[in-house]
């Protein structure tokens, strides 16, 4: 990626902190104990649709994939895509959700925070679309990338500090917001084909993807999600507009990034008198996603479905 202005460098440093979640600091999920990065072939993605936002400017490294924690990750994504996971037409309820995996804007947890989430939503009659957004460039060599990340986060921490400027946090992800806006535009363009109601398209994001979800909802442009979910994302205070979408938040109290940063995001939504539901689980760490774990954080998806059902985005009993 081209060098960023001094104004954007602090924001990018904050963004990079999210890689701590999937790489080194978070407790390893049950059934996924192998934290070693292992290069894998790029999986077939026959349903992936290029979003037309162009190739990442100045990119020299090419897209590559690796396995870790029993899941798969993409890195050095230079062309954004959207992959549909459509429900059985007999179950389709007209609601759609764009799913934004996390990974610190240097990788994407495509399975645990992308495909598996989308499949689960489709089972409830929701048309789900996994967003593979463009990423900040990292060393092409996987071992070099792993070493760089370990060195960067050897001291722990890495999340945004309490009171971080939300606008500064968002300033460094304009490329990714462009990809998210294009995803909304594509789903609305093909809404009839995919049996989606254009005014019932929401977005859910994980970690860095949660940050992208907030940015997409709050940038005041044309995406305008009907609702949003942020799963183990930042709880920074934001200026919330009067028409902000309903918000669902899930976080573990022992999250090493955001478990002790206050609840400014919740207060912001409540202060704006906008709907918000917040689940703070005692345990779960960061990056639990769809991994099966004995902690109650595993229940976040069921709570999300219940919340969507309460708002009639999912049919009761689906």
TrEMBL record:
Pfam families with a match to the protein in the record: DLH
One MF term in the entry's GO annotations: hydrolase activity
Keywords of this entry: Hydrolase, Signal
Domain of life, source organism: Bacteria
InterPro entries: AB_hydrolase_fold, Dienelactn_hydro, GDXG_lipolytic_enzyme
Dienelactone hydrolase domain: residues covered: 159-289
Record has NADP as a keyword: no
Residues spanning the signal sequence: 1-32
PANTHER family attached to this UniProt entry: AB HYDROLASE SUPERFAMILY PROTEIN C4A8.06C, PEPTIDASE S9 PROLYL OLIGOPEPTIDASE CATALYTIC DOMAIN-CONTAINING PROTEIN
Record-given protein name: Acetyl esterase/lipase
Source organism of this protein record: Sphingomonas trueperi
UniProt lineage: Bacteria, Pseudomonadati, Pseudomonadota, Alphaproteobacteria, Sphingomonadales
